[in-house]
Structure formats: structure tokens, C-alpha cells
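Problem: given the chain below (143 residues), write out its structure.
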Amino acid sequence: MNEQGHPRVGLGIIVVNDEGKILVGKRKGSHARKYSIPGGHLEMGETFEQGAVREMKEETGIDISDPKVIAVTNNLETYKEEGKHYVSVILLVRNYSGEARIMEPEKCEGWIWADPRALPQPHFDASAMGVACYLKRSVYEKI
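Solution.
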């Protein structure tokens, strides 16, 4: 049984640079040792866009503008592995300023720019599904 009693809402942010690469971090702690796009939890009363701006600043120190919702993922692999069921809203960002820094060293080993067609492995399921949606220009992909 899900320890939360119901699915929670997560956010994933795909930041694309001028070379077409996306920002990916290697996680520690939650979903340990997997790579993932930046993201986190949606807070009460927050829009998806507000949450994306907040999470990017908290996790990377990067300021973003004009994030766009592009997809939704149902993170059943995480549920099977950890008993935590999330539905994640994926946002796309092309407008950003600053360089990625490790703002939460207890949660992330570091940030890299990666080819979205060759994601580093192992990769967090919500992130992998979100990137698959981005590449296929679809709103939902089962993996």
C-alpha cells in the first residue's frame, strides 16, 4: 500500500541549452544514485509554473522564466521500488540565467548537460518518461 494513501504531485523541469542538451543531476538520498532532470514537489496553492521556478532556484541556483507544461507522467516504477506513487507534471524551459550549482549537496552530487537522446543511466523513471515525451512531442508516454 502507498504510504501516502494517494498519489502526490511532482514537478520535472527540462531546461534546454543552445546546443539542445538538457540539465541533468545525479541524485543522492531520495531515488538514490539515479540521474534526473531538476524537480520536486508541488506545494499547496502553487501553480505548476511557480513550482518550477521555485524548484529550479532551490536545486540549481538557476533563474528560469516562462516554463511551459508539456507532459504528465505516472511514476509506477518508483511506486513498485519505493512504495511512493507520484504523478509528475513536466515543464519545458528555454529561458534561463545563471550556471547550475549544487544548492542541496545532500540531494545531488552534481549537474551536467546531457544529450536527451542518450540519457545517463540509471535514470529516474519520471525524468526518463518526461524526456521521452519532450522528444516525441507527446503529452504522455508509457515506459
